[in-house]
Fold this protein.
Amino acid sequence: MNLSCDTPITRDALDAIRRVLGHIEAQLTSPLSLTDLAAVAAYSPFHFHRLFGALAGVPLMSYVRNRKLDESLVDLLNGKGSVLDLALRYGFGFEQSYARAFTRRFGETPARLRRNPKAIQIAGPLVVRETPGGGLLADPSFVVCPQRMLIGRAIHLALSEDLQDGLANSAGRAFMERDAPRIRGSVAPDVYIGLVKPVNPLTGLATYVPALEVRPDAPIPAGLERHRIPARRFAVFRYAGWHPPEALDLARLTQLLDFIFLQWLPQSAWRLDTTFHLESIDLRRCAADFTEALLYVPAAPPPQAGPPADSRAA
């Protein structure tokens, strides 16, 4: 399989991910290794480990362990064997290893939860979708983020100009080369943040702000500006593509957002806010042939239906 930087993530890669996810679910009580799962995907262990981690947000074998623990929870509460039986059934080898992993995941020991059963929230299997731009996008997690401060340099541009000239892309590279080194008090100097606001109907221009997240007291270098992102709930989408980070330009981001709003959102009960979104790229986790990114889109749960109206009301 050719994995050069010019190779998009194709349907073959999506099928490989889904094939591995199905294999994991079918083999939760069998030994599973990175080498075995990469063979199911027909990828090298290195490339599959990198791709899966980018989409799941956890390493492949951590995902496998979590799915095994989630499934064992059902057996535990149904009384299907002792704690040692469950440890051996789900491949933990020793009762102590299983109990430690179980407690870290669920906040209760297996024995205590069996004595005092209660509902435990678990995450379902990973769902991955192919995007029009040749990448993969995982269904979102929902995160409440505290207030965040950014320092960056805003540009205003017409989408047609950006598609032709790559203005946002150029602005991002220039920011990281010239402005980022001048920022003191950054929270994560290697994590590039792009703040995107849609087209203003009065001006016909979109706003793009290449930025770094900073501490609240960070000084503002000359020529840059501070942007406050209030505390709120976000839908966080994980994206992975076989291309360098700079290829995640405004055109590709627009494709991703169209995909999210036109294909994912109609199948979801959530509501998304279109007033802005954030892209986050940890440059330490990217390479000339690979990019992973997080898209933070403000989100709200569906409105709750009120009580039925009283038909006797005038």
Remarks:
- Residues 60-77 form the longest helix (18 residues).
- The chain is about 35% helix and 20% strand.
- The CA atoms of residues 163 and 251 lie 6 Å apart.
